[in-house]
Structure formats: C-alpha cells, structure tokens
Specification:
The complex is a heterodimer of chains A (178) and B (118).
Chain A (H helix, E strand, L loop, with lengths): L3 H14 L4 E9 L4 E8 L6 H5 L17 H11 L3 E7 L3 E9 L11 H11 L3 E8 L2 E6 H8 L7 H16 L3
Parallel strand pairs in A: 1-5
Antiparallel strand pairs in A: 1-2, 2-4, 3-4, 5-6
Helix pairs in contact in A: 1-3, 1-4, 4-6
Chain B lengths: L2 H7 L3 E2 L12 E4 L3 H7 L4 E5 L5 H9 L3 E4 L7 H10 L3 E3 L4 H10 L11
Parallel strand pairs in B: 2-3, 3-4, 4-5
Antiparallel strand pairs in B: 1-5
The chains are: A alpha+beta (178), B alpha/beta (118).
Chain lengths: 178, 118
Amino acid sequence: MRELSLHILDVMMNSVEAGATHIELRIEERSSDDTLAITLQDNGRGMSQEQLSRISDPFFTTRTTRHIGLGIPLFQAAAERCGGQLVITSQPGKGTQLRATFQHSHIDRAPLGDITSTVLSIILTDSCDLSYTHTVDGAEFAFSTLEIHAELGDVPFSHPSVRAWLRQFIQDGEASLQ
Amino acid sequence: MTLDEIAQKLSLVNRTSIGIQGREVTGGYTGDLLSCVMAGAQENSIWITIQAHPNIVAVASLLGLSGVVVAEGIDIPQETIAKAEEHSVPLLSAQETSFTVSGRLFQMGVSGTGRTNQ
C-alpha cells in the first residue's frame, strides 16, 4: 500500500474483529540503527498454531465474505522489501502481537502517511481502547483513550466537538515529533 | 516529443509552476517501486507512477527525468509539490490509470526506455 498507516489500519481492524477490547500501537523511528518499527498488541481471541502458520498465506482468511486475505501478506512483503521483517505471535484466548520492522531510509519504504485518520478510525468505532505511542529518536507522543475517557466522563468520542478536538490533538502530537 | 506536447495530447495537468515547453522526452518508465525506477529509468524519460510522496522528486531529480506523471487522479500532497518546485521537477496529474497513460504514450511514439537502440 502507498502508506504504512493503511497497513496499520488493516491490522487494527483484524484486532477489532477478533474481539479485542484493548489495542496497543507503538511506532518507533530510530536514526541510531536506521529502523522504523511498528508494534501492535491486542487482547483479542488469539490464534491457534495452525492459524498462525497460515497467516502469511493470502489464500487463508477467517473472513467469511471473501476467500483471499491480502492484508498480512502485503504488510510482510513491504517489510521484507525494506530489509525488515514481520513477526506475529499469538495464543488462543490471550491475544496477538504483530511487529513489523523496516530499514527507515530504504528507498522503497512507504511513508507512514495519515496516521491521524487511521488512529481516529479505530477510536471512533468505540469498540476498543487504544494506547498509542510514537517515538522519533528522543521525542515521544503518547496517549491512551482510557485516560481521555476518564477526563470526558459521560461525553462520548462521537460527539462532534470531541471528534474535532481528538483530531487536532493527534495532529498536534504528531507534528511535535517532526 | 516534448513534455508540453504530451501534456496537451493526454490532458495532463501540470501541478507545478515549472515550465514544460521544449522539455524533450526520449523514453518512458512505468513503475511504483522506487528501487526499480532507480535501476530502470533513463535520463530525459517520463515516469508514470501512482506514488505521490516527496521521494518521487528525489528519484526524478537524481535520474534527470523530464517529468513525473502521477496517475489515477491520485492527489499530490503540497509537500511533494514544494519539493518539486525546489528541484525543478515537473509533476503532472493524469486521471487515467498507469496502464492507459503508458499505452497512449506508446501509441504517440514515446516508446522504449530512452536507451539508444531500444
């Protein structure tokens, strides 16, 4: 895909569909070892060893609406093309962790892209909490929807003012890393 | 064939303020993997791609390409346009797919890679 945020969105949708109530998304950009690492951890239903062994096979999918699942194979291909790898660990009933690494400066490494919209899409499904951390060398932007919920009390994320505030908050946080 | 002639015949829109009159186009390359473009595209070629991030300007500038066509109506971010202005790389928008743009260019006689005897 043309930007990594779309791969991240795809994986987070997998987590939501696996019944996750909490997703942790960590993006680390390090010039010291020229690495971009994306880690996603969820507390969804997890996968058996058999399912896990087939996850990179585009002809394996647990979706019922179609017979080809390209999300993970494409993400893996993108990482491997950029001198990195994609590793998934999972246990039934415990959740799944995905870690994709890229050589940060690789010419074929897609830009992170519109991570704000990706993160907002998941937050606004209101189906799970999100812990988000993005570090660029020494700088960090982090937030937790649990903490924001606590501040808002009864006001839902779907309220237009909250939605607008959230978008600006995430955009400003991301901009502070540049 | 020149870039302005191509732009006119294919209804391409120049997204930069860089003049394209008289820019000679001697070949073409179509592809979205920048490493492949680096290896395969020749100087004074036109490059057709769906990539629109600033790195396309770096590649076009390094290779001395006549210009870059971003196909499929893909929006070109301001950051990429600014980079293109800075490095004098014309960025042209096409509504058609890479396949169609390439095919029409080929029909117009813009064929080959720009290498001699090919």
